[in-house]
Design goal:
heterodimer; A: about 260 residues; mainly alpha; 13 helices; 2 strands; B: about 100 residues; 3 domains; two-stranded antiparallel ribbon
């Protein structure tokens, strides 16, 4: 781990990286998030995507939830259009994060385009969890770049391992996909309304499966959720929790996820 | 080949969402309703993806070893296991139930 002095901005004094709390949080969230790239890589190749399609998703799409959505629809026999629609609808929240980060960090020139690419749940949460502007900037870039590098590295590892496994069902990889989606949903189920939305959308999905082509039930659920969002008066940041909470240690001592019982 | 097309289009659209937040004036986007829809849609899509991957088999519903995976994952999450442990619990439950003969 580097101990080089870094220049956070034109006016900020040099600070040792290891002394910056945002950099430490950014590095640990990079490792935690990067590691689960293994499960994405393995599930992607067993869903029927090849190695380079899997890598293209991690390198270019680079948003965990949307990537899992894309392969989840393909694995269920859905069309490419349905996979794209689910991934794109799930990516909408990154636009909200971009707006928050733009107000917070004000990146200029080419940095703005680089910042946009690494604007995801975890880099946003690492940055907005800090109060000092220089720390916010360091947290964003450390988490964003760190996750990008490790996520892609571990996606490749998972894709190669998954391709070597043989029959995916024998290893329970379809069960792994179920667990992955529940794991992505879980941290967002804080309070009564998110749980109600999840239940209603789950029911809508079950009803829609026999009636419409594969992949489409997910879009039906998205439409139901959008209608609920339009009319509801809940918290405006509901559902915008990160997959892995960078500040979980500080909130709870040990362990990472947060249970649905803990309404904030 | 067409899968590549939709895949690359997904990548372009994902980047477009991210960039729009940086380029569009905040006054246009700072709308609580937009933000709420982004949030409820994230919950709805993930709930739906969980269900589809658990009980859908093409256009029909099936109750099989994947239900065990869902239960095992829920238990792991309840005990605040890290994401990777949750995924392994799901895989282990599905593989184990199949070994025991439940499809």
């Amino acid at each position: 781990m580097g101990v080089e002095p870094v220049q956070a901005g034109p006016e900020a004094p040099p600070v040792r990286l290891t002394q910056s709390p945002a950099v430490r949080v950014g590095l640990s969230i990079s490792i935690a998030t990067g590691l689960y790239g293994v499960s994405f890589g393995a599930l992607s190749v067993t869903s029927g995507l090849d190695f380079w399609q899997t890598m293209a998703l991690s390198l270019l799409l680079f948003s965990g939830g949307s990537q899992f959505a894309f392969i989840g629809v393909v694995a269920g026999g859905g069309s490419g259009v349905a996979a794209m629609s689910a991934a794109t609808l799930l990516g909408m929240r990154n636009g909200i994060y971009g707006m928050q980060l733009n107000a917070l960090l004000r990146p200029r020139g080419w940095r703005r385009f680089a910042a946009a690419h690494v604007t995801i749940d975890e880099s946003t949460a690492t940055s907005t969890g800090q109060t000092d502007p220089a720390e916010q900037r360091r947290g964003f870039w450390t988490a964003g770049i760190g996750i990008f590098v490790l996520w892609n590295l571990f996606t490749a590892v998972g894709a190669l391992a998954g391709a070597a496994l043989g029959d995916p069902k024998q290893w329970g990889l379809d069960g792994a996909a179920v667990a992955a989606f529940l794991g992505l949903l879980w941290p967002r189920l804080k309070g009564r309304e998110p749980v109600a939305i999840a239940v209603v959308c789950a029911l809508a999905t079950v009803l829609a499966v026999p009636l419409v082509p594969a992949g489409v039930p997910i879009l039906v659920a998205a439409a139901v959720a959008a209608v609920v969002g339009w009319f509801s008066h809940g918290r405006s940041d509901e559902g915008l929790e990160p997959d892995v909470d960078p500040y979980a240690e500080q909130h709870h001592g040990h362990g990472s996820g947060r249970g649905p019982g803990e309404a904030s | 080949m067409t899968l590549w097309l939709w895949l690359l289009l997904s990548c372009v659209l994902a980047y477009a969402w991210k960039l729009v937040g940086y380029l569009v004036p905040a006054s246009v986007l700072r709308n609580p309703r937009m933000s709420r829809i982004a949030g409820t849609m994230t919950i709805g899509l993930l709930a739906s993806l969980t269900v589809v991957n658990t009980v859908a088999s093409g256009q029909s519903l099936a109750l099989d070893a994947r239900l065990g995976a869902l239960a095992a994952a829920a238990v792991a999450l309840w005990f605040r296991a890290p994401f990777l442990v949750v995924v392994l619990a799901g895989a282990g439950a599905a593989a184990g139930l199949r070994l025991l003969g439940w499809n």
